[in-house]
Amino acid sequence: MKAMILAAGRGNRMRPLTDHSPKPLLEVGGRALIVHQIRRLREAGITELVINHAHLGEQIEQALGDGRAYDVRIQYSPEGPGQALETGGGIHRALALLGPEPFLVVNGDIWCDLDYRRLRLEAHDLAQIVLVDNPPHHPEGDFALRAGRARLDANGDRQLTFAGIGLYHPHLFADRDPGAFPLAPLLREAMAAGRCGGLYHAGVWLDIGTPERLQTLDRMLRSSQMKR
Question: Residue 40 is part of a domain; what is its CATH number?
Answer without folding.
Answer: 3.90.550.10
